[in-house]
């Protein structure tokens, strides 16, 4: 993995106002392409495109593509250029209660490295941050990268994240009011490169990008594990809510979610370090007696909260993720049967196949969105469009 | 109200591809303006703009504005043009269980006529449609207009409206599966001019346009009346849900909404034709003994469903509309107190001031959106933008 120029990340701002960003965007959309092709697509003149291509190549953003070996073109074939997805990297992080998951991706989203570390259950909030910093440094060093080679980091945390970036966590209580991006700013200078987000919000981004929700724009992602939580995508965009609290139905006693979470037990065998939901998922998969009944009762308990979400939003699709997604196919008919009497229409249900990497993969997507936004001069990777803008 | 050209509505399609639509859009954004001003704003040449202005004036879309009487300009002042908002009309309709409300508006949204008619409680579904057709004809005739002078009609109905335009109504049971737009198509040729929508969905559009939610983009509008229902606006757009069922929390027994609706009674005096909520609103306003307590118990019963919405979406603002909105200010502290223990944050609450015309006003907005969409070559007044489109 060659690293061309240590200051490359800082070129981003300068690029904004240049025509070169138009050429770059075209190449990121489709590579490789010839100068003529780019001139046609951008409406710029051939000499302008030639100059821009030279500039972009010098900066390490694009490179000449190999000439295809097949076919004998008459005369010398036109040079073709491609976007250098390896020109930069982003990191996706999932820091949960018990585990850190790290993913390193190229600018085209290809995952090039992954790591997983357990967190000692007795670790304090401060120790968890130090553990994350150390693991991140080590992870990047192992790939021959320094922190400033990373253009953006998307981090999922087990708690609500308000507009100010401060966490509200009932899971890691001493993370409440923590500004995690700021705490990592020494490692990744420029906090605008670090994006902290509620974990299940990243999970829904991942499902929409590369998971079960690729074809849907109105999606609820329900994580079924030791904690039950929900992330929403509406009209193809993450819906956080005013204070980052969208999807927090666990609060409402009438829906009984807290009782289900607290009261849940699995009487079968548990491996060391396994949660009750981990063990139940394993038991169902191995066909242990009674496991499916326990799962069914668990889903009956969860159904009113899922039904409230479905009735509130009428989504296209509900993706089931988290520990119990490992159960796979049996999940959907069981939950569907409980949702039937509680809803107008049972929505399409799908089980996540992203496994333990879902949240970190959403972190990668979030980080890539931030890079895209900076490349195109927008902020935070979101576009707004009002209903009445003619 | 002069009517220039009977075939004007059909000019819409032809306008799409013309530069004139750019000029028209500029004049709709700001009027009056000079040819120079329009040339500057559109980037078109003065002669081009002059030709377009002439064309648009001949079609009746724009007209020369009166020269301001104030100030003595040196020499002859430049001609100024304005958009003719009176060039076309839209109608907003609210057809509820007991009442039809009609609003006639110009293309700039100014309401120029209004009407209200009671519906006999024993009327069948078919009779209700006939009543609506007759009242609409009569209403337009009274304004010197024929149905084809109306460019679009937005109709609010007490039921869910699916993507196919078919109604699902528990309020007027024999409207179930009705395609109301099609049934009115003979009166308003071209069904694409008739837009049928759930009534509370129109209410939220109206609140966002001219009501309590003008400054908010994430809004839940809760109608508190004989029926309790909810409309959602997310990111400045109406959120209907996959099957038009968003906000239908009344279904979920755990939230107890149906019990509140069915069990609600007001022991005080009732005027003829008044619903229990009408009578309660009147009693609270006149300071009748015990009325505020009854209202408080009603709101306590509604609170879990409102809390579920708030937790699911975390909206900026909840607008309270419907019959009980007439109570005014006392409503918000009472509901707020019940929401406190059930939510993470009590959202901002506001009481609608649009009165009985809220739904019909939303119908006007919906109809204007459809006109805007056709003027700008889009469909159905909505724009989509994915999260990753650079």
From TrEMBL, chains A, B:
CDD domains: ASKHA_ATPase_ROK
UniProt-listed Gene3D superfamilies: 3.30.420.40, Winged helix-like DNA-binding domain superfamily/Winged helix DNA-binding domain
Single GO MF descriptor: DNA-binding transcription factor activity
InterPro entries attached to this UniProt entry: ATPase_NBD (IPR043129), HTH_MarR-typ (IPR000835), ROK (IPR000600), WH-like_DNA-bd_sf (IPR036388), WH_DNA-bd_sf (IPR036390)
Pfam families attached to this UniProt entry: MarR_2, ROK
Domain called HTH marR-type: residue spans: 23-73
Coiled coil: none
PANTHER family: BIFUNCTIONAL UDP-N-ACETYLGLUCOSAMINE 2-EPIMERASE_N-ACETYLMANNOSAMINE KINASE (PTHR18964:SF149), ROK (REPRESSOR, ORF, KINASE) FAMILY (PTHR18964)
Family membership noted in the UniProt record: Belongs to the ROK (NagC/XylR) family.
The protein's name: ROK family transcriptional regulator
Species this chain originates from: Streptomyces tabacisoli
